[in-house]
Amino acid sequence: MDRKVIIAGNWKMNKTAAEGKALVEALKGLVADVCPSKADIVVCPPFTTIAAVAEAIKGSNIKLGAQNIHWAASGAFTGEIAADMLKELGVEYVIIGHSERRQYFGETDETVNKRVKAALAAGFKPIVCIGEMLEERESGKTEKVLFTQLEGGLAGLTKEDMANVVIAYEPVWAIGTGKTATPELAEETHNFIRMTLNDMFGKEVGEGVRIQYGGSMKAENAKELVAQRNIDGGLIGGAALKADSFAALVHNAIAE
Known about the structure:
Blueprint (H helix, E strand, L loop, with lengths): L4 E6 L6 H15 L7 E6 L2 H10 L5 E5 L16 H6 L4 E4 L2 H7 L3 H13 L3 E6 L3 H5 L3 H12 L5 H4 L3 E4 L13 H19 L1 H4 L3 E4 L5 H8 L6 E4 L6 H12 L2
Parallel strand pairs: 1-2, 1-8, 2-3, 3-4, 4-5, 5-6, 6-7
Helix pairs in contact: 1-2, 1-12, 5-7, 7-9, 11-12
């Protein structure tokens, strides 16, 4: 199946509003030649930077994402962000269940599921993150961990819901470490994820879901990774914080 490439930059806790605006102002010109039918380019700034970035990318081919969303519409949830708050700013994509949220802030498959459902109900496209720790990989538990995260995180979703869901596979041992799974190893794991989605939602749906790779993808390895049958793009950390490196990654990912 011909799935459109999606490259999303997760800025994490980086870039003030002024810095974020400067970054996307530079990025716009560098990726202006990328046809929207060829790839989705997404930037996901911190909450305080979203408004400035939203204004700066107007009229460009860059889409806007957020790094989290709460499942409640409003209420006593200090430090959280609601769907309407993001919608008002023009957000289209929302990262949910990133390994750092799981590792440092108590995110579970259950809370991921609640956030995903809230995002879908509000009309967002959730980027649902899954991935194993190094010790889980080394002890042969990768598939069990990923299956559990998929089953829990996507529980109760319909086939129609899945048309708007992106999966991001991020081997935790390869995030920000400079370590990258070989294209063959990454493809093997992406294929397992695809087969699991086929089992859960049917082959027609599973084959249509875009699965990103999120383990230290950069300009140098983007082409080889995205050339794999089941790797449909990347969730990018460090390489997304500079316009030139992110633009080069995007171009290499879609190169014939």
